[in-house]
Amino acid sequence: MPCQRSQMSDLFNMDIYFKKEYTQYTGSFKERGAMFCLLNLPPEQKKKGVIAASAGNHALALSYHGKLLGIPVNVVMPTIAPLMKITACRKYGATIKIEGNNIVESRTVALKMAKEMGLAYINGYDHEDIIAGQGTIGLEILKDVPDLDACIIPIGGGGMIAGTALAIKTERPDVRIIGVQAENCPSFKAAMDVGRPIYTETKSTLANGLAVPTVGVNAFRTVMAKNLIDRYDVFLVKEEFIELAILRCIELEKAVIEGGGATGLAAIIQGLIPGLEGKKVVIILSGGNIDTTVLGRVIERALAEDNRLVKFQVSLSDRPGSIAELTKLMGDLGVSIKDIFHERPWEKHDVFSAMVKVVCETRGADHSKELHDAIKKKYPNVHLIWGHRYD
Predict the structure, then answer these.
(1) How many C-alpha atoms does 207 have within 13 Å on its Cβ side?
(2) What's the pLDDT tens digit per position in 245-257?
(3) H helical segments located in the chain
(4) Which terminus in the chain has less CB density within 10 A, N or C?
(5) Which residues of 19-29 are buried (b: 16+ CB within 10 A; e: fewer)?
């Protein structure tokens, strides 16, 4: 998969190279470990088949390569798994069982089925062959960007950072390895803090592919035993910056990235990682399997976070032409009205006034402030609610 310089480099004063794992056939880096693991199965086990617990990307990778290799694949998926991923796995010929409220519960079911049916259980982030397969990412990075200074790697269960970091550090021990997780699932950072994998409470996160409550034992030991990453180089990303990272990838890279795959760029946008200015930095965009129903909501939320989608309420005189004056003011400023709503019954300040609610598009924070200031200047004595704030 390509590792190319990004035009976002100038925005952040560093040479950014994106490792584009979302261009894999099933949309994520998981294909590497899945194929290597399936190829290494004993002949008898290849006939019996395999089973895994996965919310999506590992399931897709196993299902696809299982079909190519003629190996039966069973997957237990939690109820939160996106419908598009469930449908795709079935299309590849896998037997899918939907059970469990999260990946931990699904794993319990899968392990029981593996014992009863004689199937090989393949952990999507902690099987030794999975970790080894993910290491090919690091080898390709070194080939494409041999003089990199740092590599930013999303962390879920830990398989990708263990394999990739080991490959890079074996050849280039001076390269700085940086791990990123969603703030709502800090399991790897929690494990580093206590020195062992521990169960970590997980909240809902856009980076659902990284939402692993307990990191893999083998993956964690690989990272710690080889000193592949400093404990202060694991960063937790806020949800709103993951949304912004997805939007930046769409607009500037012409790439659709899922939440987990965008966490590395999100950490840069959030300004979490010190010491990268002027450096050559590789960021792994690990997957692109975002649910299409979620993507639209993410874009709108990111536009709002970017101050390019603005909501306000203003109390105006209920006379003919008052809304026309407001819309002319907005038009003169180059603001595009997305939605407008005019209501009288719930206006509490004045029986001769009406509340006008507006959602509009601006060019960004400066343009949004220009609109705010113009409204305050034209209507100095009216009630204005900007976003959720009285002004």
Answers:
(1) 37
(2) 999 999 999 999 9
(3) 9-12, 30-39, 43-48, 57-69, 83-91, 103-117, 128-144, 159-171, 187-194, 217-225, 239-248, 263-270, 292-305, 322-332, 365-378
(4) C
(5) bbbbebebbbb
> Which pair of tokens denotes residue 197?
């994998």
> Please, what CATH class does the domain formed by 307-390 belong to?
alpha beta
Tokens of 265: 């760029």
Backbone angles phi, psi at 137, to 5 degrees: -60, -45
pLDDT at 327 (0 to 100): 93
Domains 3-26+128-292 and 307-390 share a fold: no
CA angle at 47 for the pair 45 and 50, rounded to the nearest 5°: 55
Concatenate the DSSP letters of all residues of 134-184 into one string: HHHHHHHHHHH-TT-SEEEEE-SSSHHHHHHHHHHHHH-TTSEEEEEEETT
Fold of 30-121: Rossmann fold (3.40.50)
pLDDT tens string 45-92? 999 999 999 988 999 999 999 999 999 999 999 887 878 889 999 999
| Domain spans in the chain, listed from the N-terminal domain onward | 3-26+128-292, 30-121, 307-390
Which fold does the domain 3-26+128-292 belong to in CATH? Rossmann fold (3.40.50)
